[in-house]
Amino acid sequence: MLALKPRRSLSVRALRYGVVGMLAFAIDYGVTAIAFTLMPLLVANSIGFAVANIANFVLGHLWVFRDARGNGHWSRAYVGTLGVSALGLLLNNAIVGLAVGLMGEPLLWGKVAATAIAMGFNFFARHIWVYRRAQLELEKR
Hints:
Radius of gyration: 16 Å
Oligomer: single chain
Number of helices: 5
Largest sheet: none
Number of domains: 1
Structural class: mainly alpha
Helix content: over 70%
Distance between the termini: 18 Å
Shape: elongated
Mean pLDDT: 80
């Protein structure tokens, strides 16, 4: 892994998270839209969210939060991220279900609304709960 500056301001992290989020959104929407032709909405949405979550974690771990503690911490960080993402998925499904299932909005609008809200929640939860310890360890060095 590249040895990069471990300290990043919150605004730089947020900007990078936005770029990663846009890529993850494209993956999420694409998978969801295809899956929705074959299965119920919330199942398709959950599959799209899960696939995008993997890409989001890898890019977030390496580029946004730059966890430089080494490969041994990937599993711990992913478990923490997965916990945060599970809450984000509940929020995402609730919004998509409401917008598309109950209000009759197009899938794209429901996904955009759900992603915007869940993305904000996920960023701050990961920043505070998942990567805070790593940042404190790096600052001690």
